[in-house]
Each structure stands twice: as C-alpha cells, then as structure tokens.
Amino acid sequence: MTQQTNQKKKPQVSLRQRALDYLSKREYSIAELAQKLSKVAQQYELDAEEIPEILVDFKKRNWVSDTRFTEQILHARKSKFGSMRIAHELKEKGVSDELISEAMQEFKVDELSNARGVWQKKFSSPPTTREEWAKQARFLQSRGFSFEIIKKVINEQEHDI
Known about the structure:
Blueprint: H1 3-6, H2 15-25, H3 30-43, H4 51-60, H5 66-77, H6 83-92, H7 97-107, H8 111-122, H9 130-142, H10 147-159
Helix pairs in contact: 2-3, 3-4, 5-7, 6-7, 8-10, 9-10
C-alpha cells in the first residue's frame, strides 16, 4: 500500500460549520462574518452563494447580532478608548450608522470619567509645561477622545494642584 491510500482525506468543513466555529470563539458583526465566510469560500473553493442564506438563518436564531456585537465592543473598549475611536472601529466592522449613533449616546454619558481613568493610568501628574500638556493631549486624542473631553480632563488636573 502506498502512503497516499493509508492517509485519510479530511472531510471539508461546510461554510455553516465554519461560521458556527467563528461565533463560538467571539461575537462578530453580520458584515464581518459575511466577509470572513466569503474569504473562506474563496480559499477552499466552497459555494459562496449560500452565505446570505446562512446569515439570515443565524439572525433568525439570534446567533449573530449587530446589537450584541456593539454592546460587547463597547464593554470591552470603554475603559481604554474614547467614543471617536470606538465608533470608527464599529464602522469598520460594518455596524450601521444608526446603531453606532445610538450606542455612542449611551457611551458619552460616562466618557469624561473614562477619559480621567485613562489619563490617570498613564500620567501621574498634571502637565507643567505646554509641551507636557500637548503630549498628554495627543495621548488622549490617540485613544479617541474629543478635544472638548481632553481639555476638561487635563485642565481639571492642573487646577487640582
């Protein structure tokens, strides 16, 4: 017997099963899951035409949900990032503008306190020079906080001295 006949061929995993495997590891937005499945279909020469059908079924069963995905991202990112950065990430993942807007309204209630926490983790003292102020502002800006929030956080620290 040759080595080829001894080796068993692995059964090809269906797109549906791959989607379930992805969702068992973490939440995905509907658009993100569709994109991932289309790449897999192309890579393994599977029928990409069944992707919309799979997504409709998963939505009906509530196995995939943009609302749940948005809530999960907000929960995971709010202690590190500002609303602008989170909104941008959600937009990249294919979440609707409506859902992003709704989520950001809720998020902005606590954004100032989140920015304070991020600032305190990074900086132990308020800025004493313009350069330090600019450095701290750039840091908070890179984390996705608005300039209005940045000014409040940094100026508030200066007044506490």
